[in-house]
Specification:
This protein is about 15% helix and about 40% strand. It is mostly beta strands.
């Protein structure tokens, strides 16, 4: 379930496709929040655009949202998205993948040009073509 508490969207606008977390991503995020004693915190997601057109995603924890933030909940993850990132991230999906070589978050964003992807793990986020 995804919903807006406050932010860019009015009460009658759909929020179903802003951003979704897979069960694997939600489980990992909630596991980390619990380990750090931050179970009530929001995950802040910010999308930044680089000079070369590449995208970067920043994650952080916050206790409360500002008046212009959009607050969503997907698979039990409470997230905050700033007003500048919302249009660029709408429709994205965040998954968590574990593999032999590395594990991390994978962001699929239909707003980014074809051929670009993002995988986050090991304390950082790397995006590229």
């Amino acid at each position: 379930m995804i919903y807006i508490i406050n932010g860019l969207f009015g009460e009658n606008m759909t929020t179903e496709n802003i951003i979704t977390f897979t069960e694997a991503a939600a489980s990992k995020i909630n596991e980390v929040l619990k380990e750090q004693g931050n179970e009530e915190s929001y995950l802040r997601i910010t999308l930044t655009m680089g000079e070369n057109g590449g995208a970067g995603y920043e994650f952080g924890l916050e206790d409360k949202a500002s008046g212009s933030d959009t607050i969503i909940e997907s698979n039990g993850v409470k997230a905050i998205i700033d007003s500048g990132s919302t249009p660029l991230i709408t429709g994205a999906s965040i998954d968590y993948v574990e593999g032999m070589q590395r594990s991390g978050f994978v962001i699929s964003n239909p707003n980014m040009p074809s051929g670009e992807g993002c995988a986050c793990g090991g304390g950082g986020c790397g995006c590229g073509r």
